[in-house]
Automatic annotation (TrEMBL):
Cofactor (UniProt): pyridoxal 5'-phosphate
Protein name: glycogen phosphorylase
InterPro entries linked to this entry: Agluc_phsphrylas (IPR011834), Glyco_trans_35 (IPR000811), Glycogen/Maltodextrin_Phosph (IPR052182), Glycogen_phosphorylase_DUF3417 (IPR024517), Pyridoxal_P_attach_site (IPR035090)
DUF3417 domain mapped to chain residues: 13-120
Top-level EC class as recorded in UniProt: transferase
Family per record: Belongs to the glycogen phosphorylase family.
Keywords per UniProt: Allosteric enzyme, Carbohydrate metabolism, Glycosyltransferase, Pyridoxal phosphate, Transferase
Naturally occurring in which organism (per UniProt): Nocardia thailandica
A Pfam family recorded for this sequence: Phosphorylase
Amino acid sequence: MKALRRFTVRAHLPERLAALGELSTNLRWSWHGPTQDLFAELDPGLWQTVGHDPVRMLGEVPAARLDELAADDAYVARVEAAAAGLRDYLTRPRWFQEQTGTAVAGIAYFSMEFGVTEVLPNYSGGLGILAGDHLKAASDLGLPLIGVGLLYRSGYFRQSLSADGWQREHYPSLDPQGLPLRLLTSEGSPVLVHVGMPEGRVLRARVWIAQVGRVPLLLLDSDIAENDPELRAVTDRLYGGDQDHRIKQEILAGIGGVRAVRAYTRAEGLPDPDVFHMNEGHAGFLGVERIREYVAQGLDVDTALAAVRAGTVFTTHTPVPAGIDRFPMPLVRRYFGGAHGESESALLPGLPVERILAFGREADPAVFNMAHMGLRLAQRANGVSRLHGEVSREMFAGLWPGFDAAEVPIGSVTNGVHAPTWAAREWLDKARELVGPELVEEARGWEKLSDVDLGQLWSTRNVLRTTLIEEVRRRLRVSWRQRGAAEAELGWVDEVFDPGVLTVGFARRVPTYKRLTLMLRDPERLRALLLDPERPVQLVVAGKSHPADDGGKALIQQVVRFADDPAVRHRIVFLPDYDMSMARYLYWGCDVWLNNPLRPLEACGTSGMKSALNGGLNLSIKDGWWDEMFDGENGWAIPTADGVRDEHRRDDLEASALYDLFERTVAPRFYDRDAAGLPVRWVEMVRHTLQTTSPKVLASRMVRDYAEQYYGPAAAAFGTVSVQDYAGARAVAEYRRRVEAAWPSVKIVQVDSAGLPDTPVIGAELALTARIDLGGLRPDEVAVQAILGRVSPDDDLSDAETVPMAHVEGEPGAEVFEVRTPVPLSGAVGYTVRVLPHHPLLASDAELGFVAVAGA
Ligand SMILES: *Cc1c(COP(=O)(O)O)cnc(C)c1O
């Protein structure tokens, strides 16, 4: 018989062990080994069974065992010490508290998924785990950050395989009461967030709080009796359902999320956040809700928009156009429109429907684009690696017509990973011993690793590889049992993988651009690598395909079928159900982390960073983070065939380069041993990676970059526009209206040059004078620039230098601007002059997207 519903009853803890309750509900345990040890010791076997989940552990451990440990003074003392350590972690001033420059009152960080721990499986992959690492690093650094997202009844799917290697999906449902969550309450009763739906319906959600160290994570949950069955199901699954389902989720996350933040800060007596961070476009509706709030306070829409923009940061995560979240315009109109076709939004009273729709406009008028909305509602935006910043500036250049891609105001912050979560205990303990706790908690002191003995490093690598192999065999056995094999047929599983063999990992989601099967391009060559008698390679592969993507499932099946062959199955495995609990073993134990995306479609990629943190050497296409962090000594770059148009040929070329690297460089180096059996060159690369790459890939570095380059400036901008009853926002709104009205008449009437001799040499001074009609704007309301650079036969400028021109005289309609500047280049040089709007409260002169160029 199946239960209709489930719920979890928490055990009553003996008084002397009461602190275990506190330790189980703050997710800091997920990156704090000593706390995990305390739970494991309650019952090591049960700890495995409950999937390393402290809350479940306390629910299931027999009372007699708890009583026994309550009488054990040494255990009780360790519990007390761990609890005291947690309290100290939660209250001690940290990096942020030592900063004097940036005054940030609070940051609300919105994401559709959060991967904090496998115990709270509220993520599908990279984006969610990045968000989890962001919260953890924000906690370590003491940032006043609040996470906001949804709590899904069954998270993302769990993957298994059919006998013939086809992906199967399962959606086990979660009981929030059994998770490390508490309800947001007000005066003793649960807070319910309300969001309007079409036809006068109301979507309600309760708000769960997961405590991630110092950072609260608010998760909205619509599965409550107050909703009708359709609305109860809004938070049923991550990335499940159709567009209609998805827009409801995004409305709840964005609009409901802001309402949850307000309820939370009110309940806790905290200041209102001044910075709102949209982690990808899904959360973009938070911006229109904030405009509504200001309009309700009496601001006009333009002023409200200026205020919202000042404090909003938007991060884009995908260079794949298909990866961008887009809705049919009529669907958005249905949710945001007026009740009876009125022009005012019923969901967001005070906002004209057309204004809302315009935020998401793109080239295709039938489509509402969430990334475009993010860019229009945020004054600051970024991609997630240097290369991705560049690609994003090109991809979104259409929103800034007339500007070169390089000038599009989208920057970059390279992603990072949370070391205490992803580095093996062995490394963390070694670090504490060598450097003190800073390395672990504050990510300092990596340079001291240069003193570590190579033999020691190698023995740790060997231990981690062996641990991985045990996990590979365990999971492979479970998988084969699920595929229908009998235990008696599985003796060979104990012989899978060899602790002395070069171990390569490839694990990621399975969209086409990641090219899961590139390694199978030439199956014979792969087989030869795996079975090489002298220098074999063993390969562990994992990854989930989106449930609706049969193409991806076919790729998985191809790998599974190859790996099922008895001739190679001891050297290559596909492990189903890639998630955080599996991934960590791979990052710890793989010698080489393989990544072969189609450049430049990998925005950043973080799995390789986690491998590097453990001394893994990356072997990757130079895409995402590897494009900027490959240094010749921390791994290998697979040469790309970027220019080659024919996809198949490109795959052939890149696959062949991949095999070459393994055959000629990677395997020989791994097996090149000194008299003591040590692969000296290899371990030197490991040490170099730990010492110089690790500090760059840390989430603490990433969050510090956000704090300094984005949150601080956004909070400052918000402060400036909001003082004196939003006088600054009014000024920006008023300025923007004037620019929009004036711009069609802004013209560069005439440009004259003087000063150059007949045969100028580099450095000769050029004097430029421009006469400009400003269409009614004042000279101090624009920036006039001379652009000098190399010129092509058809007059395109490149390597251009921008020189500001000064206003010298004039009259309305013919203002004169001048500059004297040395010619920066030799050869064919050209120049032009342009005008941009300029206002001290804008983040850049490109922000409004207006430019007038001479002659255009
Ligand atoms: C880090 C991580 C990812 C993201 O890795 P990519 O390199 O960005 O593909 C996905 N899933 C899990 C379980 C991870 O730990």
